[in-house]
Amino acid sequence: VQLVESGGGLVQPGGSLRLSCTASGFAFNLFYMSWVRQAPGKGIEWVSDISWDALKTSYADSVKGRFTISRDDAANTLYLQMDNLRSEDTALYFCARGTGKDASPRGRGTQVTVSS
Q1: Confidence band (pLDDT; 50, 70, 90) for 101?
Q2: 83 Ramachandran zone, left/alpha/beta (phi>0; psi -120 to 50)
Q3: I want to staple 67 with a disulfide (CB 3.0 to 4.6 A). Which of 49, 63, 76, 102 is the partner?
Q4: What confidence score (pLDDT) does residue 12 get?
Q5: φ and ψ of 36, to 5 deg
Q6: What is the enclosing helix (H) or strand (E) of 10?
Q7: Are 2 and 14 in contact (CB under 8 A)?
Q8: How far is CA 98 from CA 15, 30, 84, 101, in A?
Q9: Of the ranges 54-58, 87-91, 99-103, which one carries the lowest mean pLDDT score?
Q10: How many Å apart are CA 44 and CA 25, to the nearest integer?
């Protein structure tokens, strides 16, 4: 199983980023997938998940209305569109197979920094 995140970077408050996660080594289309994050000095926080058929999505209250999770099973890719970013969204973002903050395995992460 391999999960590789990309798309992170430095963005100003109010800006947007789109994270991608390319999966390989398993039947991506059969699994729930999640995004989790870890801010400096803090534990893992679940951000969002999406069902195997993309019919169900869930979001943490802290990102609801600002982030959108999606998937492209033909490309084995998971996405996270992040709009109206805030400084508190600064974290290392991971995609993971499964649901919840303990979803596993995870990729190595992509850094998102929100700062003016």
Answers
A1: confident
A2: beta
A3: 63
A4: 98
A5: -130, 165
A6: strand 9-11
A7: no
A8: 28, 10, 26, 9
A9: 99-103
A10: 24
Over residues 96-112, mean pLDDT:
94
List Cβ neighbours of 30 (8 Å cut-off, separation of 6 or more): 52
**Residue carrying the six token digits 């999770």:** 69
CA 64-70-71 angle, to 5 degrees, is 155
Strand 2-6 vs strand 17-24: parallel, antiparallel, or unpaired? antiparallel
Kindly calculate the radius of gyration of the chain based on its CA atoms and give it in whole angstroms.
Answer: 13
Residue 114 exposure: Cα atoms within 13 Å on the Cβ side? 18
Secondary structure class of 104 (helix, strand, coil): coil
For tokens 């980023």, what's the residue?
17
Pair of tokens at residue 85: 């970013």
Cα 44 to chain centroid distance, Å, stands at: 12
